């Protein structure tokens, strides 16, 4: 929420955030300062000694591509060698993703609210995007309120588990990027890849 969303076309009012993607911490920090209209800050070398880090045991660190698994374990080894204390414990709230994203969740409901004025032009949309937008058209106000309450309890539950730790660690995605041909092979392939790539980031986005 440090970065204003002005000028960004929304997907979900409840979930959207703006931030940098880059290949180094330094680039992310510089880009973040620009987006937040803040002066650049010098990066401090905080070191890892004594950091209490949690790896959430369970689905978020399972079924990883070999390359991702190797890179993640190598990162954990470097942190451990630098003095970080790494614990592997289950976080039950992270295992209930199906509840958070039923009927498209916040993103589905709010995307439909944003795009419903153009439903007479839905044939002009990418058909897979149109299908996702329509997924939540029958979600009721009561369903949406239930989702808000579910999110509040989820945030409280995760905060309680993470309270003893400085951070939790997991791969951003469980896989390396697929090729366009792999994703575009069929609707089934598209939605399977979409769910796989969003699997880990979804539980973090729901914490926002």
Explain what you see.
This protein has 208 residues and is mainly alpha-helical. The protein is 46% helix and 7% strand. It contains eight helices and three strands; from the N terminus they run αβαβααααβαα. The chain has helices spanning 25-35, 66-81, 97-100, 105-115, 127-134, 141-162, 180-183, 187-205, and strands at 52-57, 85-90, 167-168. Strands 2-1-3 form a three-stranded parallel beta sheet, with helices on one face. The longest helix is centred in the last third of the chain and has 22 residues, at 141-162. It is globular and about 60 Å long. The mean pLDDT is 92.
Shape: globular
Percentage of residues assigned to helices: 40-55%
What structural class do helix, strand and pairing data support?
A: mainly alpha
State mean pLDDT (0 to 100 scale).
92
Strand order of the largest sheet: 2-1-3
Work out the helix count: 8
Q: What percentage of the residues does DSSP assign to strands (E)?
A: 5-15%
State Rg. 19 Å
Order of helices and strands: HEHEHHHHEHH
Q: Which regions have little confidence, pLDDT < 50, spanning 5+ residues? A: none
């Amino acid at each position: 929420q440090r970065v204003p969303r002005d000028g960004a076309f929304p997907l979900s009012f409840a979930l959207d955030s703006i931030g940098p993607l880059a290949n180094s911490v330094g680039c992310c920090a510089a880009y973040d300062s620009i987006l937040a209209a803040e002066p650049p800050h010098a990066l401090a070398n905080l070191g890892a000694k004594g950091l209490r880090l949690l790896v959430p045991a369970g689905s978020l660190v399972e079924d990883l591509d070999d390359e991702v698994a190797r890179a993640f374990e190598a990162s954990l080894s470097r942190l451990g060698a630098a003095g970080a204390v790494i614990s592997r414990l289950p976080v039950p709230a992270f295992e209930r993703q199906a509840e958070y994203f039923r009927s498209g969740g916040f993103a589905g409901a709010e995307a439909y609210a944003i795009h419903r004025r153009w439903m007479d032009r839905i044939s002009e949309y990418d058909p897979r995007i149109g299908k996702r937008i329509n997924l939540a058209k029958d979600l009721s106000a009561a369903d949406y309120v239930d989702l808000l309450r579910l999110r509040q309890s989820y945030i409280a539950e995760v905060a309680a588990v993470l309270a003893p730790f400085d951070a939790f660690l997991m791969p951003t995605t469980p896989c390396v990027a697929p090729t366009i041909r792999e994703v575009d092979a069929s609707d089934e392939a598209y939605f399977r890849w979409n769910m796989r790539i969003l699997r880990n980031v979804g539980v973090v986005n729901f914490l926002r």
